[in-house]
Design goal:
The complex is a heterodimer of chains A (118) and B (114). Chain A is built from no helices and 11 strands. Chain A has 118 residues and is mostly beta strands. Chain B is globular and about 50 Å long.
């Protein structure tokens, strides 16, 4: 079974541009979560999608948005890029949403997209 | 403010030594997970602990969940170079919307020298 795939793996953008990152979950997984990882802040939760609906959102500005398609693939978009948006963006998929009935679904992470904003 | 504090932040040891890394919080978690992340890859789940006081063993790794479900530790016996990586703890907390989300510590970067 193929793992979580993320494209592109590396990206260089300049301030003010916008970027779209893509995540294909493991086949059969319907939940996708996005995280931002930086050396200073560690792994921070961006949002979670399940069945094309956003279930949870972290404390990020509105420049960060996402969506999920009917095939469970997900995209996240960052508009008006800032230098501080440089980070590793990780996507994780699971069978179901987090916290359902008190059960923590196992999340499987992709390799990430490393974004550099100049 | 970091909800989960991990210590130490960096650890460099020789092959064969033992080590313990800690994950502490003032919040109670319904469950806590440990991940290992290697360069260029995403985190990989090692274990989930759910019950206060629970101890789980995975070969040379021993994980413990505090009685009050606020802290956890990871002990590695006879570390090997293959144990090198970033060790992350993550706790499941309730959100205002009634669902739950994972919050991560910043991690402990472990280097095991041959």
């Amino acid at each position: 079974k193929a793992g979580v795939t993320q494209t592109p793996r590396y990206l260089i953008k300049t301030r003010g541009q916008q970027v779209t990152l893509s995540c294909s979950p493991i086949s059969g997984h319907r939940s996708v979560s996005w995280y931002q990882q930086t050396p200073g802040q560690g792994l921070q939760f961006l949002f979670e999608y399940f069945s094309e609906t956003q279930r949870n959102k972290g404390n990020f500005p509105g420049r960060f948005s996402g969506r999920q398609f009917s095939n469970s693939r997900s995209e996240m978009n960052v508009s008006t890029l800032e230098l501080g948006d440089s980070a590793l963006y990780l996507c994780a998929s699971s069978l179901g949403p987090s916290g359902r009935a008190g059960i923590q679904e196992t999340q499987y992470f992709g390799p990430g997209t490393r974004l550099l904003v100049l | 403010t970091q909800l989960l504090e991990q210590s130490p932040q960096f650890l460099s040891i020789q092959e064969g030594e033992n080590l313990t890394v800690y994950c502490n919080s003032s919040s109670v978690f319904s469950s806590l997970q440990w991940y290992r992340q290697e360069p260029g890859e995403g985190p990989v789940l090692l274990v989930t602990v759910v019950t206060g006081g629970e101890v789980k063993k995975l070969k040379r790794l021993t994980f413990q969940f505090g009685d009050a479900r606020k802290d956890s530790s990871l002990h590695i016996t006879a570390a090997q170079p293959g144990d090198t990586g970033l060790y992350l703890c993550a706790g499941l907390i309730s959100t205002q919307g009634g669902s739950e989300k994972l919050v991560f510590g910043k991690g402990t970067k472990l280097t095991v020298n041959p």
